[in-house]
């Protein structure tokens, strides 16, 4: 799986002249985001309750983390619970939170040993207090790991994240701490909850649905999208490899005419 070019295309902003900087470091990160969709349909097809689909979804997540490490992915951001998911029946919401608790209890120590850094992306406000404590502890225990970065998007909505960023920027401008002329895509990205993540390379959605569903709207600006007709509980090594193979064949131009290697900084 090619992680990226070893030479970067440099465009002189004054002259527009292009050159290749052969000394530029190879792209080190491979950031994949996943909308893990189809748990409910998987359960229905098996005449089971939806919770069984989510339970099987956790197993699929565990398989996919292992596969991602093996396949050279460095960062994986998964959509576990959106700000809109609170609209689901209370019992299903409770079951999802329960599965997250169980996942942390059963797998955190293994993930820590395997070099995985676990982080949460999303709003703490509104989450059960014990979940906030558990996810913060999970990050604290794994924060020095750098083999693989797992971001679990929990109580996450991209629009809310963008609005929070705008509010913070507006506050800084009003206080005189920030000049509006200094706001660029790069600086704006620094206000998002994903600010310390590398650019998103690939966004996968399972179950045949073709929507972003308020996931990583800003970050997906130059990401490649792969939609797969597989229900999330059936996911694992082979489907992820298939998605990465499709990604490797894509011609990423980042807005340029030729297949250059200018990566946006967000
Ligand atoms: C979408 O399937 C899936 C979700 C809303 C939750 C994803 C959660 C998991 C994979 C398990 C929990 C994760 C952790 C980290 C413990 P859906 O319910 O919308 O399926 P449907 O579209 O077929 O009804």
From TrEMBL:
Annotated GO CC locations: cytosol
Enzyme class: transferase
An MF annotation (GO) of this entry: ditrans,polycis-undecaprenyl-diphosphate synthase [(2E,6E)-farnesyl-diphosphate specific] activity
EC number: 2.5.1.-
Chain residues that bind Mg(2+): 37, 224
Keyword Iron on entry: no
Active site location: 37, 85
UniProt-listed InterPro entries: UPP_synth-like, UPP_synth-like_CS, UPP_synth-like_sf
Pfam families in the cross-refs: Prenyltransf
Keywords: Magnesium, Metal-binding, Transferase
Domain of life: Bacteria
CC cofactor: Mg(2+)
Alphabetical GO biological process terms: polyprenol biosynthetic process
Binding site for substrate: 38-42, 50, 54, 82-84, 86, 88, 205, 211-213
NCBIfam families (UniProt xref): uppS (TIGR00055)
UniProt similarity note: Belongs to the UPP synthase family.
Function: Catalyzes the condensation of isopentenyl diphosphate (IPP) with allylic pyrophosphates generating different type of terpenoids.
Oligomer status and interactors: Homodimer.
Name this polypeptide is given: Isoprenyl transferase
Organism the protein comes from: Asticcacaulis taihuensis
């Amino acid at each position: 799986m090619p992680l990226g070019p070893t030479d970067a295309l440099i465009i002189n902003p004054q002259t527009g002249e292009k050159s290749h900087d052969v000394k530029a470091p190879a792209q080190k990160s491979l950031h994949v985001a996943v909308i893990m969709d189809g748990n409910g349909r998987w359960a229905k097809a098996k005449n089971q309750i939806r919770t069984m689909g989510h339970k099987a979804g956790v197993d699929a997540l565990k398989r996919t983390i292992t596969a991602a490490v093996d396949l050279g992915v460095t960062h994986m951001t998964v959509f576990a619970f959106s700000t809109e998911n609170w609209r689901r029946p209370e019992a299903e919401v409770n079951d999802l939170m329960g599965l997250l608790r169980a996942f942390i209890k059963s797998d955190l120590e293994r993930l820590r040993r395997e070099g995985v850094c676990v982080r949460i992306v999303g709003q703490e406000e509104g989450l059960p207090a014990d979940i906030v404590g558990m996810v913060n502890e999970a990050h604290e225990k794994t924060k020095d790991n750098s083999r693989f970065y797992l971001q679990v998007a929990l109580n996450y909505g991209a629009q809310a994240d963008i609005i929070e960023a705008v509010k913070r920027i507006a506050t800084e401008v009003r206080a005189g701490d920030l000049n509006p002329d200094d706001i660029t895509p790069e600086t704006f990205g620094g206000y998002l909850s994903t600010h310390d993540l590398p650019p998103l390379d690939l966004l996968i959605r399972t179950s045949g649905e073709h929507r972003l569903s308020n996931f990583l709207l800003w970050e997906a600006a130059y990401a490649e999208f792969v939609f797969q007709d597989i229900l999330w509980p059936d996911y694992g090594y082979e489907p992820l490899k298939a998605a990465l193979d499709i990604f490797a064949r894509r011609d990423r131009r980042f807005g340029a005419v030729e297949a250059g290697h200018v990566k946006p900084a967000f």
